[in-house]
Design a protein that fits this description.
Radius of gyration: 10 Å
Distance between the termini: 11 Å
Strand content: 35-45%
Bound molecules: zinc ion
Helix content: under 10%
Shape: globular
Number of helices: 0
Length: 57
């Protein structure tokens, strides 16, 4: 199950959270609950701004 992780900044509260690029469930911000990523069957649709790519190791 290869895939990258992205550090995504929440558009509402600026919390930064790591999201798997192939998230299979909706990812919500841990602080305010805003949706950060939606599953699409392939790469997740990221709602926030990607601050950094965290390479899979
Ligand atoms: Zn937030």
């Amino acid at each position: 199950m290869a895939g990258n992780f992205y550090r995504v900044q929440c558009p509402d509260c600026e919390n930064e959270q790591v999201v798997f690029e192939k998230a299979s469930a909706t990812v919500a911000c841990a602080v305010c609950g805003t949706t950060l990523a939606r599953p699409t069957g392939g790469k997740a649709d990221l709602e926030g701004e990607v601050v950094e790519t965290v390479e899979a190791r």
